[in-house]
Amino acid sequence: MTPKLSIAVVEQDRERALMIVDGLRDAGDYDVTVIGDVVGLARRLVALQPDVVLIDLESPDRDVLDALTMASGPADRPVAMFVDRSDDAVMRAAIEAGVSAYVVGGLSRERIRPVLTAAIARFHMVARLRSELAATKAALEERKLVDRAKGMVMKAKGIGEDEAYALMRRAAMDQGKKLGEVAAALITAAELLK
């Protein structure tokens, strides 16, 4: 059994907050908490640690976006923002603050589920891309270390590239380490001996 999705709803108007909560009840079985005041929003979101944040604002201001950024980086959780009116600068700032879905034209009860689903799907897609980018960067850094260490081994032993690589690979296997770890150790040792 999967745990209930916890959703923090940021809405200052009581009637609209009730409409959102009813819409969420229609959409599924969620654990919903309403935050009725944007003052202290970052602190409240950090304390709640919701799975999803749903924000309904007439027109988002910089303070709300800053609070959202402080409380929840883009890698933390999906954020869906409904606004009545917006401009390009505010929309860009919202997306940079980690908003997964930015919907202009206000919120209606029947739009809650599809927007929530889209925000979660987009969040997971972006998280996967971030993970792939981090893995690619790490692989590139490891490759640079291996190439640098391989050059040092070639120079020290007077051997070719293939032989140096095979020697480092064998050392890694013998020690039960990754090739990048052996390369980093070689570089550190060489710097200490300078």
In short:
The protein is α/β, with parallel strands linked by helices. It has helices spanning 14-27, 41-48, 62-71, 88-96, 112-157, 161-175, 179-193, and strands spanning 5-10, 30-35, 52-57, 79-83, 101-104.
Characterization of the model:
60% of the residues lie in helices and 14% in strands. It contains seven helices and five strands. It has helices spanning 14-27, 41-48, 62-71, 88-96, 112-157, 161-175, 179-193; strands spanning 5-10, 30-35, 52-57, 79-83, 101-104. A five-stranded parallel beta sheet has the order 2-1-3-4-5, sandwiched between helices. Strand 3 (52-57), helix 3 and strand 4 form a beta-alpha-beta unit.
Number of helices: 7
Mean pLDDT: 86
Principal-axes shape call: elongated
How far is the N terminus from the C terminus? 59 Å
Strand content: 5-15%
Structural class call reads alpha/beta
Series of secondary-structure elements, N-terminal to C-terminal: EHEHEHEHEHHH
Largest sheet, in brief, is: 5 strands, parallel
- What's the count of strands? 5
**Helix amount:** 55-70%
The side-by-side strand order for the widest beta sheet comes to 2-1-3-4-5
Low-confidence stretches: none
